[in-house]
């Protein structure tokens, strides 16, 4: 790993000593003469940037805190048991395998020093690392925002990683298990109520998929409940759902959702989220599953750049995606805020990919002493959202369509955009299976490790030995 410099100094971040790497070898010296391009983040933007640098005579390092790239548009299908996590993810090393000038580093980037042009990262194996760069591309994406109510996160998970999707799947399926084992009506109703906070595309897609899980997939699998009796509530604080789509398409999507059994509450603000449900516009809605699909904010790392940012903390970059007053440092994808043709570039995968490609070509030109061909221009190919089986909406500047054929387009576009051929084949197989049988292959609740199973049993025994107060236990045996 010739590009990684380690010193004996102690990290200011966690006090851990940084290990020293011995005298540079001749190979190392030659390689250090090559320009060092560091890309933070192996998401859509980072991978597109790395691929665009294929022919550049430089060492490219992709640093990511996880070893895989996630196809986020299909995360909701992992959360609702349609797909397995590995079907929508690909190891970043596999994606970079063919590109000899790229190396991959599994580490969490924790610091950026623009003066010494180094970044600081924590690697699970190697500890603290200092990595020099000539060009830095920051493509960290965004993280969920609870709008100042981080305490909600404990009860209302958001959907951003494979882990989140698996937790949500376990929460949904676990709620039905508890509903099956109680004969208390109120408890059962609470277990079978699913509240989604945020009526953007993720909230809509997730709500529709839970509705179909309840009415089709899970039907006939339980003996004491009918999952079709579930209550699925989508709460949006704005006047309507899908605010980035036209009124007409949003109305069509809303109608479709209602047909699937989803209740939509608009103009309603969630004030409290706790272990028993939510309070929205002063009304309590008991719900065992609350999912947060509302907002995003930039990760704290971006603040270290000391650059101008927007309300969500995204870095405001110049028309060449360069951080103002920091030449050779770019922020792309969801983490950046830029304008194209007078309009803000949206935080979508297509924009992240185009920005990644643009930055790669800009760096290649800078390295030859040339300026980029022109400022970044976003080619908007439109936005899509899927509302259950057979129905999607598509909006471009000139086209607004909805229905079955749009859904076919949605399916084809998403299939082709998956990172690897094996993902495409596996997802296609699962979709065909689900389409024709109504069944979902990943209907799994991960088993608890033995130690935590034991701890839960002990806690339950202790609780039972005390006199019961208030609410009835949720695990009573059903009357048979
Ligand atoms: C549930 C969901 C559904 C979506 N659906 C759609 C859709 O249908 N269509 C669409 O166009 N867009 C959709 N999006 C948005 C789209 O996924 C994003 O616009 C896109 O992923 C942005 O790409 P990015 O490369 O900027 O960030 P990301 O893809 O988020 O990648 C960021 C990467 O940076 C890494 N990282 C972050 N911080 C650090 C750090 N400090 N150190 C090391 N690594 C770090 C992360 O691990 C991650 O791999 C969806 C997003 C979500 C969450």
Describe the structure.
- This protein is of the alpha/beta class and 480 residues long.
- Among the domains are: 146 residues, FAD/NAD(P)-binding domain (3-Layer(bba) Sandwich); 150 residues, FAD/NAD(P)-binding domain (3-Layer(bba) Sandwich), CATH 3.50.50.100.
- It has 12 helices and 26 strands.
- It has a 5-stranded parallel β-sheet. A 4-stranded parallel β-sheet has the order 13-12-11-17. A 3-stranded antiparallel β-sheet has the order 6-7-8, with no helix packed on it.
- It is globular, with a radius of gyration of 25 Å.
- The termini are far apart.
- The structure holds flavin-adenine dinucleotide (FAD).
Task: Give a quick precis of the structure.
With 480 residues, the protein is of the alpha/beta class.
Count of helix runs: 12
What fraction of the residues are assigned to beta strands by DSSP?
15-25%
CATH topology of the domain at 146-295: FAD/NAD(P)-binding domain
Q: For this structure, what is the CATH class of the domain at 146-295? A: Alpha Beta
Query: Helix proportion of residues, in percent?
Result: 25-40%
Rg from Cα: 25 Å
The small-molecule ligands in this entry are: flavin-adenine dinucleotide
CATH architecture grouping of the domain at 146-295? 3-Layer(bba) Sandwich
Strand order of the largest sheet: 5-2-1-9-20
Low-confidence stretches: 1-30, 468-480
Shape: globular
Number of strands: 26
* Structure classification: alpha/beta
Largest sheet: 5 strands, parallel
Distance between the termini: 65 Å
């Amino acid at each position: 790993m010739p590009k990684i410099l380690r010193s004996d100094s102690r990290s200011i971040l966690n006090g851990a000593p940084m290990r020293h790497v011995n005298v540079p070898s001749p190979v190392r010296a030659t390689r250090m003469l090559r320009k060092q391009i560091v890309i933070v983040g192996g998401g859509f933007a980072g991978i597109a940037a790395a691929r665009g640098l294929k022919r550049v005579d430089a060492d490219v390092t992709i640093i990511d805190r996880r070893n895989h790239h996630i196809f986020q548009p299909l995360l909701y299908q992992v959360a609702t048991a349609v797909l397995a996590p590995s079907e929508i993810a690909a190891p970043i090393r596999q994606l970079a395998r063919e590109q000899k000038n790229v190396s991959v580093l599994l580490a969490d980037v924790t610091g950026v020093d623009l003066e010494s042009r180094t970044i600081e990262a924590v690697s699970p194996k190697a500890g603290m690392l200092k990595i020099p760069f000539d060009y830095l591309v920051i493509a960290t994406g965004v993280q969920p925002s609870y709008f100042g109510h981080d305490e909600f996160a404990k009860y209302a998970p958001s959907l951003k990683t494979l882990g989140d999707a698996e937790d949500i799947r376990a929460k949904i399926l676990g709620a039905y298990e508890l509903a099956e084992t109680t004969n208390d009506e109120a408890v059962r109703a609470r277990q079978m109520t699913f509240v989604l906070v945020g009526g953007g595309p993720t909230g809509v897609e997730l709500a529709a998929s839970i509705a179909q899980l309840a009415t089709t997939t899970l039907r006939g699998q339980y003996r004491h409940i009918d999952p079709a009796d579930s209550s699925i509530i989508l709460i949006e604080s704005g006047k309507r759902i899908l605010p980035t789509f036209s009124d007409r398409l949003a109305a069509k999507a809303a109608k479709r959702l209602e047909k699937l059994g989803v209740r939509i509450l608009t103009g309603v603000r969630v004030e409290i989220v706790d272990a028993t449900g939510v309070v929205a516009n002063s009304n309590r809605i008991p719900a065992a599953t609350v999912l947060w699909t509302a907002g995003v904010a930039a990760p704290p790392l971006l603040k270290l750049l000391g650059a101008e940012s927007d309300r969500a903390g995204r870095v405001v970059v110049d028309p060449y995606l360069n951080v103002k007053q920091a030449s050779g440092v770019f922020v792309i994808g969801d983490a950046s805020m830029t304008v194209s043709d007078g309009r803000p570039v949206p935080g979508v995968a297509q924009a992240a990919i185009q920005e990644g490609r643009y930055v790669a070509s800009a760096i290649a030109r800078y390295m030859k002493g040339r300026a980029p061909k022109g400022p970044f221009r976003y080619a908007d190919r439109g936005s899509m959202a899927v509302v259950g089986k057979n129905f999607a909406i598509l909006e471009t500047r000139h086209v607004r369509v909805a229905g079955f054929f749009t859904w076919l387009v949605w399916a084809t576009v998403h299939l082709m955009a998956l990172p690897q051929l094996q993902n495409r084949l596996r997802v296609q197989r699962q979709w065909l299976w689900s389409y024709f049988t109504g069944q979902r292959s990943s209907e799994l609740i991960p088993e608890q490790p033995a130690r935590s199973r034991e701890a839960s049993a002990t806690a339950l025994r202790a609780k039972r030995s005390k006199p019961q107060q208030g609410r009835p236990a949720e695990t009573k045996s059903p009357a048979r």
